[in-house]
Amino acid sequence: MILLIMITTRGLSKQFGELKAVDQLELDIESGEIFGFLGPNGAGKTTTVRMLTCLIEPTAGEAIVSGYQVGRDDQEIRRNVGLLTETPGHYDRLSAWQNLTIYARLYEVEQVDRQVDKYLHMLDLWERKDDPAGTFSKGMRQKLAIARALLHEPEVLFLDEPTAGLDPQAARLIRDFIAELKGEGRTIFLCTHNLDEADRLCDRVAVFKQSLRVLDTPANLRRQIYGRRVTIQLVKPLKDYGRLFSSIANLREIEVAENNLSYTTDEPEQVNPLVIRRLVEAGAAVQFVVEQEHSLEEVYLRLIDGEAGREIQS
Amino acid sequence: MDKVKTIIDKEWAEVFKNRLVLSITAFLPLFMAVLPVFMLWLYERFPEDMNSFNTGGDQFLEIFSETCAGLSEMECLEVYTLSLFMFMFMILPVAIPVTIAAYSVVGEKTTHSLEPLLATPITTLQLLSGKAIAAMAPAILATWISYIIFLIGARLMVDDVVFAQLMDPMWLLAIFIVGPLLALLAVCFSLMVSARVSDPRVAEQLSALIIMPLILLVIGQSIGLILINTQIILIMGIVVAVLDVILVMITVQLFERETILTRWK
């Protein structure tokens, strides 16, 4: 059976005593999607992952992962998902090969040796396969943990901060590997603080803090939060522009700073030619026209700090 | 069963790479096998010194009168000494696995290997069975081997009458049945403690409490308060077997994955 939606949650909630860790989470994550789950420390991301991997029970709501219901088909879910935990521990006295073999057997992998060898090669750990995991660098330990999560070829992979604390080279290697996994058609639920990483890898991102603030593609989020901001660089500073653009609809937040003119519009494709024509008619000479890109980090901070998320939700 | 075996293999691979644990597992039973044989040798080598020691305190002879019927004073002393050590062979399978079992859950918590392990399709019963067997089996095996070494040594040192006392079915029952039952009790208790504390040292210290009642029994016998006989061993075996069943169920019930992962940080 081919599933189109790999993860569904409806009103998924988790409360620890008085503390609401996750409140009424609604998600639909498509098959083959890399889904970024963003939020500050203590937002409830790890709790959500633990609920979806059947490590803890929800206090309310329901979740379906890989076609199986959380709380009812827990063993099936465990067989069909892979988990990279936030702080992946290994059996430090045992070799990389022994570590993976243990997990391959626990995940009921049919050809244990073949799978272990495959992922040791794939993650560039083959040369160190007989060394104790305790002698590995942080990057190698992370790669070993990713290999462990993939041994049983899960359809859904939960990655909790996969590049946290890694040097840029190791982080890039892991990111490239995640991109490769998407190519294999796996659904990836990626918790990360690295917004640049989320921007580059994720098809959609959700900003989450106890409850869902927003969920969309990174590009759409930028548009929703900031609109599309255009900057036009002129040869000389612009004077008396007050009435110049008054008749152009859908133009707002106009700012002039020396010879730069900036404005926000929802339809730059239509608005930009009109603005340029007015400028030229007014005797200005245009050097460059640039659409400003807001980083996902700016979007995220505005959502977490401000009211933007609630406005979009409402 | 495959998963239980995987956990056992994993635990052994880890534990036996730890030289300290390995030496405790091997040294203690070996010491317990050699020490009584050495004492018998001393008795044989310096019989007069032993007799003077013996006559100095004959309180134990009263309580031992039934056992010692028809034996010389020296033979009675040998039987008394050996029976104390026989009891040690019951304590060994309790003392050795406690360290391994006490560390097994809390150790995985502190090294962060528990969460990925619990995310695999392994049941709580499979996980705990694997950990319990991995802790118990080496201790029981080491005890039995050391007991056989002890018997061989004793055979060479004592006469037939004394040796016959060592082969009393009571001691065979104690060492081959009650000992393993006690080991299971100790391991379940240690696993329960290990799952509920956050510091391996606390787990080891709390788990060690399980040995206390047995130590008290040994002290009781050594100062002549009680005499361990077949009846006591039988009652002990039945009580421990019942406690084992109850404790296994409680240990599985109390092993809540959620609580272990979220509350006991």
Outline of chain B: elongated
Q: Fraction of residues of chain A in helices?
A: 25-40%
Please state the CA-atom Rg of chain B, rounded to the nearest Å.
21 Å
| Cα gyration radius of chain A (Å) | 24 Å
Oligomer: heterodimer
Distance between the termini of chain A: 36 Å
The computed structural class of chain B is mainly alpha
Annotation, overall tally of beta strands of chain A: 14
Task: Work out the helix count of chain A.
Answer: 11
Write down the overall mean pLDDT of chain B: 83
**Unreliably modeled segments of chain B:** none
**How widely separated are the two ends of chain B?**
31 Å
Largest interface: A-B, 31 and 27 residues
Which sheet architecture does the biggest sheet of chain B show?
A: none
Q: What is the residue-averaged pLDDT of chain A?
A: 88
- Taken in chain order, the helices and strands of chain B follow as HHHHHHHHHHHHH
Q: Strand-residue fraction of chain B?
A: under 5%
Quick one: biggest sheet of chain A? 6 strands, mixed
- In N-to-C order, the SSE pattern of chain A is EEEHEEHEHHHEHEHEEHEEEHEHH
Helix-and-strand structural type of chain A: alpha/beta
Strand content of chain A: 25-35%
Plain-language structure description:
The complex is a heterodimer of chains A (314) and B (265). Chain A is an alpha/beta fold and 314 residues long. In chain A, a hairpin with a 2-residue loop joins strand 12 and strand 13. In chain A, helix 3 crosses helix 4 and helix 8 crosses helix 10. In chain B, 83% of the residues lie in helices and 0% in strands. The two termini of chain B are 31 Å apart. At the A-B interface, helix 2, helix 3 and helix 5 of A face helix 1, helix 6 and helix 13 of B.
Descriptive keywords:
heterodimer, A: 314 residues, alpha/beta, 4-stranded antiparallel sheet, 14 strands, B: mainly alpha, elongated
